[in-house]
Amino acid sequence: MPKVKVDGVEIEVPQGATVLQACELAGKEIPRFCYHERLSIAGNCRMCLVEVKPGPPKPQASCALPAAENQEIFTTTPMVKHAREGIMEFLLINHPLDCPICDQGGECDLQDQSVAYGRGHSRYAENKRAVTEKYMGPIVKTIMTRCIQCTRCVRFAEEVAGVEEIGAIYRGENMQITSYLEEAVSSELSGNVVDLCPVGALTSKPYAFEARPWELRKTLTIDVMDAVGTNIRLDSRGRQVLRCVPRVNDEVNEEWATDKTRHAVDGLVRKRLDRPYVRRDGKLHPVTWDEAFAAIASVDHGGSVAAVAGDLVDCETMFAAKALLKELGSSLLEGRQTGMDYDTSSLAAVNFNTTIAGTEEADAILLVGSNLRWEAPLVNTRIRKAIKKGAKVFAIGPETELTYKVEWLGADLAVLGSLPERVTEAFGKAAKPMVIVGGAALKGAHGAALGLVEKLGLVKDGWNGFNVVHMAASRMGGLMLGYAQKAGISALYDAKLSFFLGADECDHARFTGFKVYVGHHGDRGAHHADVILPAASYAEKSGTYVNLEGRVQRGERAVFPPGDAREDWTIFRALSEKLGRTLAFDTIDELRAAMALDCPELATLGLKTFAWNPPALGGSAEGVLDGYPIKDFYLTNAICRASPTMQRCSAELVHGESFAEAAE
């Protein structure tokens, strides 16, 4: 490890570190615009200039200069100060004075660094250049006159998103950043360029002119749009969530978030259920809570009670419903609302055992019935990293664009029983082989996929390469709490009383008994309900979620539910009293204590490891996959379907509709 001196302080730096990283290890702040820890080095902006000895007597770009033994680095000399002032002056030559109307105001790198490292005045008296706005789709708003050509967005699109649709045209002063043919960027991760942009050139189109950062209350929570468990921050004002941005968690989402995670929040205030309803004479009528509870209490269920967990519910809700059903003498619980019936006797056999971060280490990967780009986009980005390290990827299923090179083995599941020799050869050489089973194959090929564990040597010391990709935020938590029947959801169809916990994706018409919908949006489940009990969304309650790798995480409440809506667990607690079966908890802390006794894995936060004891399954799988479970990435749940932004994304990016801009 090289030893260098930074402003007279000697430190040791890792082999291969840059001078900029060495300065940061020494606690020195180095300004930068183009450099980003998760992107390749470009060396465009020159803002990170420092003085280095031995070397030429001039400032050098620290982001692109390797740290070497016995280097002396100076970050505060007059030469460095003068150089940074000059670079800032050049960057501001054409930059418009848009701060009063710019959405980046208050969290802008250019603002902060011009104050800290700029001259305080400009000597430029010529006309500023102007650049026409570019169209990048319904997510990203462009004001390209502000662009400083740092190329962060270009590098992100190419390296992380894998969609090479943003680039630079022309040269010198005429250089412009634009999308390909000025059309919408098709990546489901495009919103991340807004966070990456160090100026106000790329901002959030749905959030435009909504609020200033200092007006917002910031709440740390967990995303529920997929099963990755993205760590997010909800920014709210009053009783409305205005913005969602990702938090850094290297083990889960790094610092990225999907467009659905970011922009479905405008659906939180639309099509909401804000009062109880009871169906009379075929029509739903608003009632009081007591009247709604009385209607449920009047049902003669005889212990035939079922609960179906939706995709977005938290563990507390599922446990409260489970506790109530236990008091009523029933154990008809199911969370796989779309009809899955795979074996759940071993949680390790339905878990993403390699872990999300561990995916980067795999050197041979087989995807079985998974469109990973839509099912778990932030796992897909990890596979791109593995490929850069030399991993080979094979896939069984209908061909689709996954943003990286894949060798497709056909859509017939019978391939699992007789993999081509080139596949077995690649896995035989692999030190860390990996199989990912997706939603399209999980129902009919779970056993056959488990049969690959020995055949391909997936489980070794310190490595488990068998993985299942879930698409619902509630799925792993539900399986841990016992929300699974051997026959799947069909075992619940004949229940005399059914509770739907935000379950909008199941076939409600097949349930023959009395239906109670406990949810937050007037979506599919509410349309079939006999009683509607308005509940809180993920932004309106504190809740525990388990992601697809078995990581227990907890989110906090950002805003309060609208109208008469209440937190889900409190609804079941109040209903239990009305039914004469009072549950043994009055606060959320008491509920969590009871839940920890029922499921010890949920007692503490963090990654849980499940003992590898898969069921004795195997054999061959039959059938040809004709598609993947997610047909429209942007409209997978009730919140998304209520979101104008997600509807626009679906129409434009999935269905190819065109939208005229104001100037047209």
UniProtKB/TrEMBL annotation:
Instruction: List residues of the 4Fe-4S His(Cys)3-ligated-type domain.
Output: 79-118
State the SMART domains in the record. Answer: NADH-G_4Fe-4S_3
Keyword Coiled coil annotated: no
Keyword Metal-binding assigned: yes
**What Gene3D superfamilies does this protein map onto?**
3.10.20.740, 3.30.70.20, 3.40.50.740, Dimethylsulfoxide Reductase, domain 2 (3.40.228.10)
User: How would you classify this enzyme at the top EC level?
Assistant: translocase
Q: Where is the 2Fe-2S ferredoxin-type domain?
A: 2-79
> Could you say which cofactors this protein requires?
[4Fe-4S] cluster; [2Fe-2S] cluster
Which ranges carry the 4Fe-4S Mo/W bis-MGD-type domain? 216-272
Keywords (A to Z) from UniProt = 2Fe-2S, 4Fe-4S, Iron, Iron-sulfur, Metal-binding, NAD, Oxidoreductase, Quinone, Translocase
Q: Which GO terms describe its molecular function?
A: oxidoreductase activity
Listed under catalytic activity are: a quinone + NADH + 5 H(+)(in) = a quinol + NAD(+) + 4 H(+)(out)
Any matching Pfam family: NADH_dhqG_C
Q: What is its EC number?
A: 7.1.1.-
| Note on how the cofactor is bound | Binds 1 [2Fe-2S] cluster per subunit.
Q: What functional role does this protein have?
A: NDH-1 shuttles electrons from NADH, via FMN and iron-sulfur (Fe-S) centers, to quinones in the respiratory chain. Couples the redox reaction to proton translocation (for every two electrons transferred, four hydrogen ions are translocated across the cytoplasmic membrane), and thus conserves the redox energy in a proton gradient.
PANTHER family per the record? NADH-UBIQUINONE OXIDOREDUCTASE 75 KDA SUBUNIT, MITOCHONDRIAL, RESPIRATORY NITRATE REDUCTASE
Family membership: Belongs to the complex I 75 kDa subunit family.
Name the record gives this protein: NADH-quinone oxidoreductase
